[in-house]
Design a protein that fits this description.
The protein has about 300 residues and is an alpha/beta fold. Helix content is about 40%, strand content about 30%. The protein folds into 3 domains: about 80 residues, Winged helix-like DNA-binding domain superfamily/Winged helix DNA-binding domain (Arc Repressor Mutant, subunit A); about 110 residues, 3-Layer(aba) Sandwich (D-Maltodextrin-Binding Protein, domain 2); about 100 residues, 3-Layer(aba) Sandwich (D-Maltodextrin-Binding Protein, domain 2). Helix 1 crosses helix 4.
């Protein structure tokens, strides 16, 4: 078993990039971690790591050995997760993706509470506004903000948000206030869109019907924070979720416009591949978020 322990240790050293980082994780000392790696190299009869004062790098032998060690680590993790499923105890590595602003503002402060409640769960969080294919990326759960389309994936509704159209008082004083969505054609807009998305339009409810209005966009971004900064600076009009705008509206840095044409609210969801096979670690996180942020409603859907 000692050789397996050493392989797991070597995997951590490679992935964390330093003896000190591994020592901190294992509540050990840097010198002890370094000594164990040196003993492993002596036992194998080859150098695995090149050491400098600034970093560690893999030798050719180290790269080959790491691949075997990673397989062992994956097998150990899979076995522990399976035992956790059979025992009902939430444990193991849980991979999650979430949009940046919502994740940082609302989910981030809850993470320490969750980890304290479930000490056997390790979290790997990807903060990215891009929609990631859960299966291809090996992601267990995704938090999504957006409209939903039919799918075999499962989405549990956590809450909802409104998309508000806003501009700074200075911009509106210079350019006039739009009173109808069609007026946006004469204004400078800043557009939130994902990479590869080409549409330049916003949706409004006009006379009870949804209407798509083309907008002239000066700035495109796949994250709302640069758009929010540009709107504060008076560069144009933005359409963003209300949870991003609360402080700016309260302080008068931005004004809402076209409120009477506001589209329906959009949902905030946690999405996963299958409810039937959801392991205890994922089920624990979903329940935790629902308790802290939302509801118990589940639907079959993914964001369109």
């Amino acid at each position: 078993m000692k050789s397996i322990d050493d392989m797991l240790l070597f995997t951590r050293v490679v992935e964390l990039g330093s003896f000190t980082a591994v020592a901190n994780v294992l509540d050990s000392s840097r010198s002890l971690v370094s000594k164990r790696i040196k003993q492993m190299e002596e036992r194998l009869g080859t150098r695995l790591l090149q050491r400098t004062t600034r970093k560690l790098s893999l030798t050719e032998a180290g790269e080959a050995y790491y691949l075997y060690c990673r397989r062992v680590a994956d097998t150990v993790e899979e076995a522990e997760n399976r035992m956790g499923e059979l025992s009902g105890v939430p444990r193991g590595l849980l991979r999650i993706t979430m949009p940046m602003t919502f994740g940082v503002r609302y989910v981030g402060p809850l993470i320490p509470v969750f980890l304290e409640r479930y000490p056997d769960i390790e979290l790997d969080i990807l903060v990215d506004d891009k929609f990631v294919d859960l299966v291809d990326a090996g992601i267990d759960l995704a938090i999504r903000v957006g409209r939903l389309a039919d799918s075999s994936l499962v989405a549990r509704r956590l809450g909802e948000t409104r998309l508000l159209v806003c501009a700074s008082p200075e911009y509106l004083a210079r350019n006039g206030r739009p009173h109808h969505p069609d007026d946006l054609r004469r204004h400078h807009c800043m557009l939130y869109r994902h990479p590869g998305q080409r549409a330049q339009s916003w949706t409004f409810r006009v006379d009870g019907e949804l209407q798509t209005v083309p907008v002239r966009s000066r700035l495109h971004c796949n994250n709302g924070l640069p758009l929010l900064a540009a709107a504060r600076a008076g560069l144009g009009i933005v359409q963003l979720p209300d949870f991003m705008l609360e402080e700016d509206l309260r302080l008068g840095r931005l004004d809402t416009i076209l409120e009477s044409f506001e589209d329906a609210r959009i949902g905030i969801y946690v999405v996963y591949a299958s409810a039937a096979g959801l392991p205890p670690k994922a089920r624990a996180f979903v329940s935790f978020l629902a308790q802290r942020l939302g509801t118990s409603e589940s639907v079959l859907a993914v964001p369109a």
